[in-house]
Write a structure and sequence with these properties.
This protein is an alpha/beta fold and 331 residues long. It has 10 helices and 7 strands.
Length: 331
Amino acid sequence: MDLQAQCKDSLEDARAALRSMIDLRKRRAQICKTHRSIYATICKLEAELTELKAKRVELEAKRVELRGCSSSLAKSINQIAETYSRGWNRDFATKLLQSLHRELRDQVYDELAPPKAQNTETDPVKQESFIQNWHQGPASPNDDSCEHAFPIRSPPYYLDEAYVGKTFATECAERLFRATRSQQVHVDGLLTFLTRDIDRNGAYPVQYVRNLEVDLSLGLFDPIPGTITTFHPRVNFSPNVYEGRVSKLHVLKHLHCRSACITVNVLCSGLVRLRRFERALGPFVYDMRDMGFKVNVRQKLEKDKAWYDFRFHLPRDNWEVAMAMEMNIIE
């Protein structure tokens, strides 16, 4: 009986092992089937990727072709717009000059480009084309005029002889210089500012400027970063330095408008330095006033610095006496 039971148990174990082997074969078959499916999917995706790469190359070639066509079309459109713009503006300028007197034309110029205060203190690039509000800006959403269609104008077309003729461009520049509330320059760039034909139409600022602010300092104007580079302190106290800085203001005596308003901003602190600046500025200020100019001198305050009151409100004789007494005390 024991042998029969053992055989029966062994038979059951063999049957269980056989069933387990059959299950393993089924699982192996399923795994192989899944693997074949995944491999087929990978092959399909690789084929699609190859096809997409080919399409990408084709589209890139079309893009290059279309870009060439677009550049050619834009060039031809720009030429048409340029021709139309020049013709229209020249015709407009001619009719304006023939129909209106100068006083009325000035009002038109003001409407075309309202004058604004300009600041060319620390940016020499702005001095090259400092009439910023006349530069072609972004088009308004409601603006459908041709003049904003293409960036083809430099300098501003109302100041460009090629668009409006010499007379119109010159009158526009004259009106701008006369009506602008104030131009601000540093003393080291003053001569260049006054004598440069900024928009190449024969209108020099020295001929038309009515209001001008000049920054005067003991430092040299550094045109690269647009900052003030200070002298060595020992040099600051030399009277020759102050007289040398003030001497650059004498170019203002050549302004054509003898009633021009000139403001000198002194970028300096310290009683001794300010007194020396006042002594150096005195002859210039009173000579300019004798010529008819309106000259004002003020300290351009720095943070936490004391205010200094220049005494150019005094008559010249009184000022000279006061300065002589005070400088004797200081020195």
